[in-house]
Amino acid sequence: MGTAAYTELDRLIINTIRMLAVDAVQAAESGHPGMPMGMAAPAYVLWTRFLRHNPANPQWPNRDRFILSAGHGSMLLYALLHLSGYELSLEEIKRFRQWGSLTPGHPERGVTPGVETTTGPLGQGFGNGVGMAIAERYLAQLFNRPGYSIVDHYTYAIVSDGDLMEGVAAEAASLAGHLRLGKLIYLYDDNRISIEGPTSLSFTEDVPQRFRAYGWHVQTVDGLDLVAIDEAIRAAQAEQERPSLIAVRTHIGYGSPNKQDTAAAHGEPLGEEEVALTKQALGWPLEPKFYVPDAVRGYFVEQLEYWRHLEADWHALFESYRQGYPDLAEQFEQMMAGELPAGWQERIPHFPAGKSIATRNASGEVLNAIAPALPGLIGGSADLAPSTKTLLKGGGDQEAGNPGGRNLHFGVREHAMGAIVNGMAAHGGLRPFGATFFVFSDYMRPALRLSALMELPVVWVYTHDSIFVGEDGPTHQPIEHLASLRAIPHLTTIRPADANETAVAWQVALEQRGPVALILSRQNLPVLDRERMAPADGLRRGAYILSDSPGRRPDLILIATGSEVALALEAQTVLAERRIGARVVSMPSWELFEAQPEEYRARVLPPDVPVRLAIEAGSPMGWERYVGPFGGVLGIEGRFGASAPYKVLACHYGFTVDEVVARAEELLETFVARADQMCALLKCRRP
Fold it and tell me: Whole-model pTM above 0.85?
């Protein structure tokens, strides 16, 4: 790179970015200084010459999206946000990685203004960006009209060697190339260093060639050459038929005399002595720390005015659009606000009692009934749409030639599906869903967890929910998965008992602001008679009294979810014949139940009825909170499933009326015996 490519102001701004990162990491005694030092120049070019955004309004709908997928280099992003004029003060930069600061160790959506998505687990941001590009293209097709490109922006990201080593990035890159997402542009920080040392220890592939094979437009530039970086981004913008990867050859820890191009610059502070040497090498004053020259401040004040004009021009265009297309304008604003149109729930079907229908089939009927009223409802499956029943009939396939298609074919890429769906939700305007067999939620666990961490409005559709998958055997039969999902904070897990509970579950899922996992059966389940039992709307409260012991206080409570609710009802009838009064509680969602007032929870599970049996074809872990010291759980513990017809499995695993009745009677007898012993000890009279 020739020195003529830099002005003095360029150098000043780039070194300001570097030194803010160095000082912040050193003050925190924790963090990753090397990546911000190496990528400061490319990031500066992108942010000041290309990125269309407005720091005064981080939620401007038509802003370009920027993702720091290499989230360990968070101080690069924080420095850019602070200098650009976002509400991120220098004091917050000084509080990097401290309790309650707006500068956490890795970028977190909802914490720091201007952060689009939570990154840190490598590869996730890469996948999120693919989802954002899909969302932009879909919304553009839905709303743009001749002369009115109200949705027209790019998705940019900085990705690292670590991102590209992760399998999720390979999955997402493959799909992005297939879909020809031309407005997706990634800068690859090719610094060739990871935590253990040079990437050559484990990573010697030809990355540009790999991405060319995926169908990407690929360029290679020197990370210190501002002119080359500028030209590469312009070429990427001009390429509308392929996503772009710009491989930027950088030097981790640039400017550090002893740590540049070493693993020592990656994940630890430079050290006070090396900080001083680095500042001297870059011609930077040793004091004050966190120094921002007046010329740099002045430059970004002017930039902020330019960015404000970008949004103002868009609003002027949108107001003109509103005059010509008032209904579309209203719909756009509603969708971007995350609101649902009035009356959409009136399309939800009701299922008559007496039929038997798998909850996955009921879900498919509900999905197709409501889709016409919800244009933001878009999603797909990991090559399992015929089995998960998530195909939107008449919705068209999302393809390069059909950006308005509502059916995404993710292929056998569960991990990327999760990250992409998260990105679609984080973009705004959509209510996306992703579907696969419940057992394969393991493949998308990182993305599933991040959807909960960010509280994104996504619906995860998981079918084939238990050992009753049958002949496919233990590899396809989830055992521990319900317990695993229930352990994730901010994720609402719902396992409906029948078709009508499934219908209510979809309504709840779309009304929620955070992620919801619907756990659905493969096998047919009876549609419960709601004239004799409580309405399915009780699902909204997580658990409800479905059927009570008539005219008397119940002797015990049977609590069940999903397919086991019908089993509990059958057992209730047999117990009644034996003069044992049983209450049946359908508990499709622990999370919704825990959100209810204590008075309601005590009404459903009264403390004076301590004998309780939970019935669920999965791990019993966690049920002790509801069954208490005098209760029990009929579940699956210490083993996996087996390959056999599902009715055979039900017998071998104890999910039969006889077993439920026997367990209930045993619990009652044990409780009575213990009560007698206690009364004898206390010389009291047992009621």
Answer: yes
